[in-house]
Specification:
Helix content is about 40%, strand content about 15%. The protein has helices at about 5-10, 20-25, 30-40, 85-100, 105-115, 120-135, 210-220, 250-255, 260-275, 285-295, 305-315, 315-320; strands spanning about 55, 60-65, 70, 145-155, 175-185, 195-205, 225-230, 245-250. Strands 6-5-4-7-8 form a 5-stranded mixed beta sheet. A 3-stranded antiparallel beta sheet has the order 1-2-3, with no helix packed on it. Helix 4 (about 85-100) packs across helix 11 (about 305-315), helix 5 crosses helix 6 and helix 6 crosses helix 10 (about 285-295).
Amino acid sequence: MPVKINDYIKGKFFDVNIINFIEQYPDEKSCKDHFRQVRESQGIICKSCGCEKHYWLKAKYQWQCSSCNFRTTLRSGTMMENSNLPFRTWYLAMAFMSFSKKGISAKELQRQLNHSRYRTVWTLMHRIRKAMGERDSLYNLEGMIEFDEGYFRTETNKQDRQNLKRGRGSQKQTNVVVMAESTPLEDVKTGKKSKHCRYFKMQVLTSHCAGEINDIVEENFDEKCIVFSDKSTSYVDISDYVDVHVTEKSTKETTVKSLPWVHIAISNAKRTLLGIYHKIKGKYLQLYLDEFCYKLNRRYFGERLFDRLAVAVADNYWYKRD
Protein backbone atom coordinates (compact mmCIF):
# COMPACT_ATOMS: atom_id res chain seq x y z
CA MET A 1 0.00 0.00 0.00
CA PRO A 2 1.39 3.44 -0.89
CA VAL A 3 2.87 5.44 1.98
CA LYS A 4 0.72 8.23 3.36
CA ILE A 5 1.91 11.81 3.03
CA ASN A 6 1.56 12.33 6.79
CA ASP A 7 4.11 9.57 7.36
CA TYR A 8 6.53 11.49 5.13
CA ILE A 9 6.11 14.65 7.19
CA LYS A 10 6.62 12.70 10.42
CA GLY A 11 9.93 11.44 9.02
CA LYS A 12 9.26 7.69 9.29
CA PHE A 13 11.20 6.95 6.10
CA PHE A 14 14.38 8.97 6.64
CA ASP A 15 16.44 6.73 8.93
CA VAL A 16 19.68 7.18 6.97
CA ASN A 17 22.76 7.52 9.16
CA ILE A 18 25.17 10.29 8.15
CA ILE A 19 27.99 8.35 9.83
CA ASN A 20 27.54 5.47 7.38
CA PHE A 21 27.67 7.93 4.51
CA ILE A 22 30.96 9.44 5.71
CA GLU A 23 32.45 5.95 6.04
CA GLN A 24 31.44 5.11 2.48
CA TYR A 25 32.73 8.40 1.01
CA PRO A 26 35.69 9.38 3.19
CA ASP A 27 37.67 11.36 0.60
CA GLU A 28 37.61 12.98 -2.84
CA LYS A 29 38.69 9.83 -4.68
CA SER A 30 35.84 7.72 -3.31
CA CYS A 31 33.33 10.35 -4.47
CA LYS A 32 34.89 10.55 -7.92
CA ASP A 33 34.89 6.77 -8.32
CA HIS A 34 31.23 6.55 -7.34
CA PHE A 35 30.25 9.40 -9.66
CA ARG A 36 32.11 7.69 -12.51
CA GLN A 37 30.15 4.48 -11.90
CA VAL A 38 26.87 6.41 -11.86
CA ARG A 39 27.68 8.17 -15.13
CA GLU A 40 28.71 4.95 -16.85
CA SER A 41 25.49 3.27 -15.72
CA GLN A 42 23.55 6.15 -17.32
CA GLY A 43 25.66 6.09 -20.48
CA ILE A 44 28.25 8.59 -21.73
CA ILE A 45 27.21 10.63 -24.76
CA CYS A 46 29.78 12.42 -26.89
CA LYS A 47 29.04 16.14 -27.25
CA SER A 48 30.88 16.24 -30.57
CA CYS A 49 29.33 13.37 -32.54
CA GLY A 50 26.66 11.87 -30.25
CA CYS A 51 28.40 8.50 -30.06
CA GLU A 52 27.65 6.45 -26.92
CA LYS A 53 30.71 4.19 -27.09
CA HIS A 54 33.62 5.38 -24.94
CA TYR A 55 36.64 4.01 -23.13
CA TRP A 56 38.19 5.23 -19.89
CA LEU A 57 41.56 7.02 -19.78
CA LYS A 58 42.87 6.26 -16.31
CA ALA A 59 45.79 8.68 -16.51
CA LYS A 60 43.56 11.59 -17.61
CA TYR A 61 40.51 10.53 -15.57
CA GLN A 62 38.35 11.14 -18.63
CA TRP A 63 36.37 9.20 -21.23
CA GLN A 64 37.41 9.22 -24.87
CA CYS A 65 34.95 8.75 -27.71
CA SER A 66 35.62 5.66 -29.82
CA SER A 67 34.40 7.47 -32.94
CA CYS A 68 35.92 10.98 -32.93
CA ASN A 69 38.35 10.79 -29.94
CA PHE A 70 36.53 13.67 -28.19
CA ARG A 71 37.18 13.57 -24.45
CA THR A 72 34.54 13.94 -21.75
CA THR A 73 35.38 14.86 -18.16
CA LEU A 74 33.57 13.60 -15.06
CA ARG A 75 31.60 16.85 -14.72
CA SER A 76 30.90 17.51 -18.40
CA GLY A 77 27.20 17.43 -19.31
CA THR A 78 26.03 17.07 -15.69
CA MET A 79 24.79 19.52 -13.08
CA MET A 80 28.38 19.69 -11.84
CA GLU A 81 29.62 21.16 -15.12
CA ASN A 82 31.66 24.39 -14.71
CA SER A 83 31.73 23.93 -10.94
CA ASN A 84 35.07 24.28 -9.14
CA LEU A 85 33.82 22.75 -5.90
CA PRO A 86 35.31 19.39 -4.88
CA PHE A 87 33.24 16.26 -5.53
CA ARG A 88 33.07 15.57 -1.81
CA THR A 89 31.52 18.98 -1.20
CA TRP A 90 28.83 18.13 -3.76
CA TYR A 91 28.29 14.73 -2.16
CA LEU A 92 28.02 16.16 1.34
CA ALA A 93 25.53 18.76 0.11
CA MET A 94 23.44 16.05 -1.56
CA ALA A 95 23.62 13.99 1.62
CA PHE A 96 22.38 16.80 3.87
CA MET A 97 19.61 17.70 1.40
CA SER A 98 18.41 14.10 0.99
CA PHE A 99 18.85 12.86 4.57
CA SER A 100 16.81 15.63 6.19
CA LYS A 101 13.07 14.97 6.10
CA LYS A 102 12.09 18.59 5.44
CA GLY A 103 15.18 20.37 4.16
CA ILE A 104 18.11 22.50 5.17
CA SER A 105 18.81 26.19 4.69
CA ALA A 106 21.82 27.45 2.76
CA LYS A 107 23.15 29.15 5.90
CA GLU A 108 23.02 25.92 7.88
CA LEU A 109 24.59 23.94 5.04
CA GLN A 110 27.35 26.54 4.82
CA ARG A 111 28.05 25.97 8.52
CA GLN A 112 28.02 22.19 8.12
CA LEU A 113 30.38 22.31 5.13
CA ASN A 114 32.60 24.90 6.84
CA HIS A 115 32.56 26.95 3.63
CA SER A 116 33.50 30.62 3.63
CA ARG A 117 31.07 31.87 0.95
CA TYR A 118 27.30 31.78 1.41
CA ARG A 119 26.57 32.55 -2.26
CA THR A 120 28.56 29.52 -3.41
CA VAL A 121 26.60 27.16 -1.16
CA TRP A 122 23.31 28.80 -2.17
CA THR A 123 24.11 28.28 -5.87
CA LEU A 124 25.18 24.68 -5.20
CA MET A 125 21.84 23.90 -3.56
CA HIS A 126 19.90 25.47 -6.44
CA ARG A 127 21.79 23.30 -8.93
CA ILE A 128 20.84 20.20 -6.96
CA ARG A 129 17.22 21.38 -6.81
CA LYS A 130 17.27 21.92 -10.56
CA ALA A 131 18.47 18.32 -11.02
CA MET A 132 15.55 17.18 -8.85
CA GLY A 133 13.08 19.09 -11.00
CA GLU A 134 14.60 17.84 -14.24
CA ARG A 135 14.35 14.26 -13.00
CA ASP A 136 10.67 14.52 -12.06
CA SER A 137 9.88 16.20 -15.39
CA LEU A 138 10.77 12.93 -17.16
CA TYR A 139 7.69 11.20 -15.76
CA ASN A 140 3.98 11.71 -16.43
CA LEU A 141 1.15 11.28 -13.94
CA GLU A 142 -1.30 8.44 -14.64
CA GLY A 143 -4.60 7.04 -13.39
CA MET A 144 -6.71 9.30 -11.18
CA ILE A 145 -5.29 12.81 -10.72
CA GLU A 146 -6.33 15.62 -8.41
CA PHE A 147 -5.75 19.09 -9.88
CA ASP A 148 -6.00 22.44 -8.13
CA GLU A 149 -4.11 25.66 -7.38
CA GLY A 150 -2.60 27.23 -4.28
CA TYR A 151 -1.07 30.58 -3.42
CA PHE A 152 2.40 30.76 -1.86
CA ARG A 153 3.80 33.82 -0.13
CA THR A 154 6.97 35.12 -1.79
CA GLU A 155 9.28 38.10 -1.36
CA THR A 156 8.53 41.12 -3.53
CA ASN A 157 10.92 43.50 -5.29
CA LYS A 158 11.57 46.91 -3.81
CA GLN A 159 9.78 48.59 -6.72
CA ASP A 160 6.60 46.53 -6.14
CA ARG A 161 6.41 47.21 -2.40
CA GLN A 162 5.10 50.75 -2.90
CA ASN A 163 2.00 49.65 -4.83
CA LEU A 164 1.07 46.35 -3.24
CA LYS A 165 -2.27 44.79 -4.11
CA ARG A 166 -4.42 42.60 -1.89
CA GLY A 167 -5.96 39.22 -2.57
CA ARG A 168 -5.15 36.98 -5.51
CA GLY A 169 -3.50 39.71 -7.52
CA SER A 170 -1.06 40.59 -4.75
CA GLN A 171 2.62 40.68 -5.62
CA LYS A 172 3.25 38.76 -2.39
CA GLN A 173 1.27 35.75 -3.63
CA THR A 174 2.53 33.36 -6.31
CA ASN A 175 0.03 31.03 -7.95
CA VAL A 176 1.07 27.36 -8.07
CA VAL A 177 -0.79 24.50 -9.75
CA VAL A 178 -0.62 21.25 -7.75
CA MET A 179 -1.15 17.78 -9.23
CA ALA A 180 -1.56 14.61 -7.15
CA GLU A 181 -1.78 11.09 -8.54
CA SER A 182 -4.16 9.27 -6.17
CA THR A 183 -5.29 5.65 -6.03
CA PRO A 184 -8.65 4.50 -4.59
CA LEU A 185 -8.24 1.63 -2.14
CA GLU A 186 -10.83 -0.44 -0.26
CA ASP A 187 -10.34 -1.64 3.30
CA VAL A 188 -10.82 -5.42 3.33
CA LYS A 189 -12.26 -5.47 6.87
CA THR A 190 -14.57 -2.44 6.83
CA GLY A 191 -15.26 -2.18 3.10
CA LYS A 192 -14.71 1.58 3.20
CA LYS A 193 -13.09 3.20 0.19
CA SER A 194 -10.42 5.87 0.50
CA LYS A 195 -7.80 7.59 -1.65
CA HIS A 196 -4.08 7.30 -1.07
CA CYS A 197 -1.49 9.54 -2.64
CA ARG A 198 1.28 8.34 -4.93
CA TYR A 199 3.12 11.04 -6.88
CA PHE A 200 2.98 14.83 -6.91
CA LYS A 201 3.96 17.72 -9.13
CA MET A 202 3.90 21.46 -8.49
CA GLN A 203 4.43 24.16 -11.09
CA VAL A 204 4.50 27.93 -10.75
CA LEU A 205 2.03 29.73 -13.00
CA THR A 206 2.87 32.97 -14.78
CA SER A 207 -0.77 33.73 -15.58
CA HIS A 208 -4.31 32.54 -14.86
CA CYS A 209 -5.22 31.82 -18.49
CA ALA A 210 -6.50 28.47 -19.76
CA GLY A 211 -3.70 28.22 -22.33
CA GLU A 212 -1.01 27.78 -19.70
CA ILE A 213 -3.12 25.20 -17.84
CA ASN A 214 -3.60 23.25 -21.07
CA ASP A 215 0.15 23.18 -21.69
CA ILE A 216 0.78 21.85 -18.18
CA VAL A 217 -1.84 19.12 -18.58
CA GLU A 218 -0.48 18.08 -21.98
CA GLU A 219 3.11 17.91 -20.73
CA ASN A 220 2.52 16.15 -17.41
CA PHE A 221 -0.56 13.91 -17.79
CA ASP A 222 -1.13 10.60 -19.52
CA GLU A 223 -3.86 10.83 -22.15
CA LYS A 224 -5.89 8.03 -20.53
CA CYS A 225 -6.02 9.55 -17.05
CA ILE A 226 -9.02 10.83 -15.08
CA VAL A 227 -8.71 14.38 -13.71
CA PHE A 228 -10.66 15.79 -10.76
CA SER A 229 -10.81 19.56 -10.28
CA ASP A 230 -13.12 22.41 -9.32
CA LYS A 231 -15.08 24.47 -11.84
CA SER A 232 -12.45 27.11 -12.48
CA THR A 233 -12.79 28.87 -15.84
CA SER A 234 -9.14 28.09 -16.51
CA TYR A 235 -9.90 24.35 -16.58
CA VAL A 236 -12.56 24.36 -19.31
CA ASP A 237 -10.33 22.71 -21.94
CA ILE A 238 -8.74 19.97 -19.79
CA SER A 239 -11.17 17.37 -21.16
CA ASP A 240 -9.55 17.81 -24.60
CA TYR A 241 -6.26 16.38 -23.31
CA VAL A 242 -7.38 13.56 -20.98
CA ASP A 243 -9.84 10.68 -21.03
CA VAL A 244 -12.24 12.03 -18.38
CA HIS A 245 -12.46 15.37 -16.59
CA VAL A 246 -14.69 15.50 -13.50
CA THR A 247 -15.49 18.93 -12.05
CA GLU A 248 -17.19 19.95 -8.82
CA LYS A 249 -18.02 23.32 -7.37
CA SER A 250 -15.31 24.44 -4.94
CA THR A 251 -16.58 23.90 -1.38
CA LYS A 252 -15.25 22.56 1.91
CA GLU A 253 -16.71 19.15 1.08
CA THR A 254 -14.96 19.14 -2.30
CA THR A 255 -11.66 19.85 -0.58
CA VAL A 256 -12.11 16.92 1.80
CA LYS A 257 -13.65 14.31 -0.52
CA SER A 258 -12.54 15.03 -4.10
CA LEU A 259 -9.23 16.91 -3.69
CA PRO A 260 -7.82 15.84 -0.30
CA TRP A 261 -4.20 15.12 -1.20
CA VAL A 262 -3.73 18.27 -3.25
CA HIS A 263 -4.64 20.48 -0.30
CA ILE A 264 -2.65 18.39 2.19
CA ALA A 265 0.38 18.78 -0.09
CA ILE A 266 -0.16 22.54 -0.36
CA SER A 267 -0.43 23.01 3.40
CA ASN A 268 2.61 20.80 4.10
CA ALA A 269 4.68 22.57 1.44
CA LYS A 270 3.81 25.97 2.91
CA ARG A 271 4.66 24.79 6.41
CA THR A 272 7.96 23.28 5.24
CA LEU A 273 9.08 26.38 3.34
CA LEU A 274 7.99 28.74 6.10
CA GLY A 275 9.79 26.73 8.77
CA ILE A 276 13.16 26.66 6.97
CA TYR A 277 13.46 29.71 4.72
CA HIS A 278 12.75 33.25 5.89
CA LYS A 279 12.26 34.75 2.44
CA ILE A 280 11.79 33.16 -0.99
CA LYS A 281 11.80 35.25 -4.15
CA GLY A 282 9.15 34.39 -6.70
CA LYS A 283 11.66 33.54 -9.41
CA TYR A 284 13.24 30.84 -7.20
CA LEU A 285 10.03 29.35 -5.80
CA GLN A 286 9.91 26.62 -8.49
CA LEU A 287 13.28 25.26 -7.34
CA TYR A 288 12.12 24.95 -3.74
CA LEU A 289 8.93 23.24 -4.86
CA ASP A 290 10.98 20.85 -7.02
CA GLU A 291 12.94 19.78 -3.94
CA PHE A 292 9.76 19.29 -1.90
CA CYS A 293 8.08 17.16 -4.60
CA TYR A 294 11.23 15.16 -5.37
CA LYS A 295 11.61 14.05 -1.75
CA LEU A 296 7.88 13.56 -1.34
CA ASN A 297 7.67 11.31 -4.40
CA ARG A 298 10.54 9.20 -3.02
CA ARG A 299 9.44 9.25 0.61
CA TYR A 300 9.67 5.43 0.84
CA PHE A 301 13.12 5.11 -0.74
CA GLY A 302 15.01 5.27 2.57
CA GLU A 303 18.74 4.83 2.06
CA ARG A 304 18.33 4.73 -1.74
CA LEU A 305 17.29 8.39 -1.85
CA PHE A 306 20.88 9.63 -1.97
CA ASP A 307 21.78 7.18 -4.75
CA ARG A 308 18.81 8.36 -6.82
CA LEU A 309 19.85 11.97 -6.28
CA ALA A 310 23.35 11.14 -7.52
CA VAL A 311 21.76 9.74 -10.69
CA ALA A 312 19.73 12.93 -11.12
CA VAL A 313 22.83 15.12 -10.80
CA ALA A 314 24.84 12.92 -13.18
CA ASP A 315 22.25 12.66 -15.97
CA ASN A 316 22.85 14.13 -19.46
CA TYR A 317 20.00 16.64 -19.54
CA TRP A 318 21.70 18.68 -22.27
CA TYR A 319 21.22 15.74 -24.66
CA LYS A 320 17.51 15.35 -23.86
CA ARG A 321 16.87 19.06 -24.41
CA ASP A 322 18.34 18.92 -27.86
